[in-house]
Amino acid sequence: MTGKIVKVISNDYTVLSNNELYVCKSRGKFRNLNIIPLVGDNVNFDDKNKYILEIFPRKNYLVRPPVANIDQCVIITSVKEPDFSANLLDKLLTIIEFNNIKPIICFTKLDKLNGAELVEIKEIMDYYYKIGYEIYDNQNLEKLKLIFKDKITVFTGQSGAGKSTLLNKLDSSLKLKTDEISFALNRGKHTTRHVELLHIYDGYVADTPGFSAISFLEMTNSDIRDNFIEFNNYREDCEYKDCMHDNEINCEIKRQVNGGDILFSRYENYLKFIHKEK
């Protein structure tokens, strides 16, 4: 039979097939091939003896959290308590783009801003929308409910941004605790890691505490550059075709930053990533 792995606890792999759950083991051949079955994997399995026989090719996967075949990632972005971090948002966007996952940005806690702060944040939101990202805030619950259908969605963002709170608002039956890791990657005082996809609005979602701590694993400086998506609109106008938009002369990206068409904080973070934070 074929199915999808929806939960991994230790060496037990829970496979969903035809609305039934099967707890399976992994064949030794995967260990010999250095392949680890992941939540999100589509598999062929023996429903009688409860063994995974084949893992179908993945379109993508993340090492941390260990989830495969992700369609989209919702970056929960707090604007107050904790304060908005353009650095973290740009880091996550770059990594998610590199892994061929669709990024969606959801801003939270806008109600905590004063008038001037709200104007500034809305200008930032407008910029990310203009360069091609889907933008929501945590008051757009009905619109958010529409994004899950037939998708595997990962939630991520800084600690305290309101990931679990938002998921509870979207589906109260989840009953996620908001002060500790509730599902997906458990990393508290226990050493066991428990990864699980939960069914929500005809799709699946994983909450991922700690995802924000990942680095630019396996990414070169060129990869970082190429996944600042608005840079690609101007690269052909740079004097050098392999321009890194740093110290080169006649760089169109730097001209666009100085002219205001590229957000200064985006360019500033780009330089930090290729010089220090890689």
Topology:
Blueprint: E1 2-9, E2 12-17, E3 20-26, H1 28-32, E4 42-46, E5 51-55, E6 61-62, E7 67-68, E8 72-78, H2 86-98, E9 102-108, H3 115-130, E10 134-137, H4 141-144, E11 152-157, H5 163-170, E12 194-196, E13 198-200, E14 203-207, H6 221-226, H7 252-259, H8 264-277
Parallel strand pairs: 3-5, 8-9, 8-11, 9-10, 11-14
Antiparallel strand pairs: 1-2, 1-4, 1-12, 2-3, 4-5, 6-7, 13-14
Helix pairs in contact: 2-8
What's the quick description here?
By secondary structure, the chain is an alpha/beta fold. The protein has 8 helices and 14 strands.
Q: Give the N-to-C terminal Cα separation.
A: 43 Å
Summed over residues and divided by their number, the pLDDT gives a mean of: 88
Order of helices and strands: EEEHEEEEEHEHEHEHEEEHHH
Overall geometric form? globular
Can you list the strand order of the major beta sheet? 10-9-8-11-14-13
Describe this structure in words.
By secondary structure, this protein is an alpha/beta fold. Helix content is 27%, strand content 25%. The chain has eight helices and 14 strands. The strands form three sheets. The protein has a six-stranded mixed β-sheet with strand order 10-9-8-11-14-13. Strands 1-2-3-5-4 form a five-stranded mixed barrel. A two-stranded antiparallel sheet has the order 6-7. The protein is globular.
